[in-house]
Design brief:
Length: about 400
């Protein structure tokens, strides 16, 4: 896929950053689907306690990320986005390795909070490519970069499931930490960013930046979509292995099948995202975003009523096809509506909304699953997608703020 990108300039950066995003997605996804099962080995918990602790362990990383990301975004606009990629990959190496050695659930939660506070590899990689890719290649470039994280997210649960079943849950964390160490060094030596440092006094305030954006409602719609897509993806993460165990009736390899369920959307997105990026360059990102959200709504309706694992895997695959349209579409809209001198901050705000989705999704998913059963989580996701679709359609028709004259 990336053979044509091993050239000088933005193509080479795209290839190296694709690898970094791949490993980042891989490292997260190879451990996330089995985190509730790992937590269950760290103590004796009731079903309610396990649901809440799992939701907290998922959410704390993203809560910290949501709070801290704008500060890192400002630093990225001043010092460069490559430095932020190095910071994120370096800290992730340390925290994931330490999680592999912990025997206490609260230590695990603290380490995940630290990891979230220093995260940001993928959004800074996106900012680098967004700033350097030619205008007629932005959709394709962002779509290709998105396949890096998606491919990692796809392969992670499968390999993580194999490792968990054969060598225990800790093996996945050790390997993820080692791979992030490789990402740190490849980014250091092979990514060359064209960036001139900006003094703090010379930076435009973020209010001034937003005042120059021609379609602010479209950008807000992008942020909302980022939040909803992530909330939809993560709402079932704390309960996916528990729901699979229920669907299997206590029989079968829960860890492996949970990995397949988690990987199904990534498989679909991997197949379609790069091609969809080229479609976006010709058709327009706004139209593709709306169509992708409509597809997501249509898939979620039967998901509320699913009865077996095969249906679960198939519907999750279809949901991934909708993401293949939505993700590169909103990334392209964000790129074309953001001033270049504020890419770091705009993309960091996107990361904050994505992180908030990862907070809201698991916590609401865990809470609602505990009160009304696992299928109710899909109904929650359906409602979020409908709200997002309604606003995106409105923002597309009325992109500018309405000025009220006296």
């Amino acid at each position: 896929m990336l053979a044509g990108y091993f050239k000088k300039g933005w193509q080479r950066n795209l290839a190296v950053l694709w690898f970094g995003c791949f490993i980042t997605g891989f490292g997260n996804s190879m451990t996330m689907p089995f985190l509730p099962l790992f937590i269950d080995t760290l103590g004796h918990f009731t079903s309610w306690q396990l649901n809440i602790l799992s939701g907290l362990a998922f959410s704390i990383t993203f809560l910290a990320k949501a709070i801290v990301s704008p500060l890192w975004g400002r630093l990225a606009d001043r010092k460069g986005r490559k430095l932020m990629c190095l910071r994120a990959s370096g800290v992730m190496t340390i925290t994931i390795t330490l999680i592999a050695m912990t025997t206490n659930v609260w230590v695990l939660i603290v380490l995940r909070a630290i990891q979230g506070s220093f995260s940001g590899y993928i959004n800074n990689a996106q900012a680098i490519i967004a700033a350097e890719a030619p205008s007629d290649k932005k959709g394709q470039a962002m779509g290709t970069l998105a396949t890096g994280q998606v491919t990692g997210t796809l392969l992670g649960p499968l390999i993580g499931g194999f490792l968990a079943g054969r060598f225990g849950y800790r093996a996945s964390f050790f390997i993820a930490g080692a791979l992030m160490f490789v990402v740190f060094w490849t980014t250091l030596f092979f990514v060359h960013e064209q960036f001139k440092p900006i003094a703090a006094a010379a930076m435009r305030p973020i209010k001034a930046v937003f005042s120059t954006i021609s379609a602010p409602r479209v950008l807000i719609g992008v942020f909302l979509t980022t939040l909803v897509v992530q909330a939809s993806a993560t709402s079932i993460q704390p309960i996916v292995s528990l729901f699979v165990r229920q669907l299997l009736g206590g029989h079968g390899d829960v860890a492996m099948i949970s990995g397949i369920v988690s990987a199904a959307p990534g498989m679909a997105t991997l197949i379609a995202a790069s091609s969809m990026g080229r479609v976006i360059d010709h058709v327009g990102a706004q139209k593709i975003l709306v169509l992708g959200l409509i597809a997501a709504v249509l898939v979620l309706v039967p998901m509320v009523f699913l009865q077996n694992v095969k249906e679960f895997i198939f519907l999750r695959f279809l949901f991934g096809l909708s993401d293949a349209a939505v993700i590169p579409a909103y990334q392209t809209l964000m790129t074309v509506n953001s001033p270049k001198d504020a890419f770091g901050r705009i993309f960091s705000y996107s990361q904050s909304f994505q992180a908030m989705g990862s907070v809201i999704g698991p916590m609401l998913g865990s809470f609602i699953a505990s009160l009304a059963g696992y299928r109710s989580v899909f109904l929650l996701t359906l409602v979020l997608e409908v709200i997002c679709l309604a606003y995106v359609v409105f923002a597309g028709k009325h992109p500018k703020k309405i000025k009220i004259e006296n």
